[in-house]
Amino acid sequence: MVKYVAPECGKDGFTCPNCGAYAQQRNWAYREDATGPYNNSSGQYPLAVSRCVHCGDLTIWHYQDMVYPHRGSAPMPNKDMPPEVLKDYEEAAAILTKSPRGASALLRLGIQKLCVHLGGAGKNINDDIRLLVQNGLPVQVQQALDAVRVIGNNAVHPGQIETDNPEMAGSLFVLVNLVTDYMISKPNEVSEIYGALPKGAIEAIEKRDAKT
Fold first, then answer.
1. Cα angle 102-12-176, degrees, rounded to a multiple of 5
2. Is the pTM of this model over 0.85?
3. What is the CB neighbour count within 10 angstroms for residue 82?
4. Given CA atoms 10, 16, 22, 25 in this order, what sign does their dihedral have?
5. What is the pLDDT of residue 134?
6. Secondary structure letter of residue 10 according to DSSP
7. Any idea where the DUF4145 domain is (predicted)?
8. CB burial readout 49-61, b (16+ within 10 A) else e
């Protein structure tokens, strides 16, 4: 997975909030006392624009604050994310720049719902992760789930983790996407390819496995 680089006004490259790709950005700005455009490498002007070289769409800024697109600076959600998780993800994305702590708490809720989607009971997120580990959950996915759980818990019950850090909160979006990709998208891709095999080949595989 490509590393997520949070959008920043005047930055030459970041993860585009429109297409989700890390791409070079063309930046310019307009001053209040003239027509411009002006170079916006410092992000000091009231109206600034970044154009993604990859998709061509615009990101619009008021000084350092992103005002378009409205979903905020979080990475695009995985296309296979369950609807109940996606709702929390998008709500968290909308408030990331204003309240990283609130976004972290929402993503923790989203992870709890994702665990239920994967077979957990939904009563205790820690127990659900333990059950998933017992059922063969890869250690990297377990660590991603626990990272979102612990940081999200600190957002609700302050502890040793600085949850008002936008970069820390932004990294949780990457982890939620990673878990969705590994546990939902990848199995779907494998099932689709396997299902396209000739019927005779699948029957032969099933007979082979039945013997074991």
1. 35
2. no
3. 17
4. negative
5. 86
6. T
7. 90-164
8. bbbbeeeeeebeb
* SS3 assignment for 149-186: HHHHHHHHCCCCCCCCCHHHHHHHHHHHHHHHHHHHHH
Structure tokens at 160: 């040793």
Give the pLDDT of residue 169. Answer: 81
Instruction: Over range 124-148, report the average pLDDT.
Output: 87
Say how many C-beta atoms besides its own lie within 10 A of residue 107's C-beta.
Answer: 29
- Owner of token pair 């027509």: 35
Nearest CA among 33, 43, 38, 34 for reference residue 11? 43
Q: How confident is the model at residue 32 (pLDDT cuts 50, 70, 90)?
A: low
What distance in Å separates the CA atoms of residue 171 and residue 65, rounded to the nearest whole number?
Answer: 19
User: How far apart are alpha carbons 12 and 4 in whole angstroms?
Assistant: 14
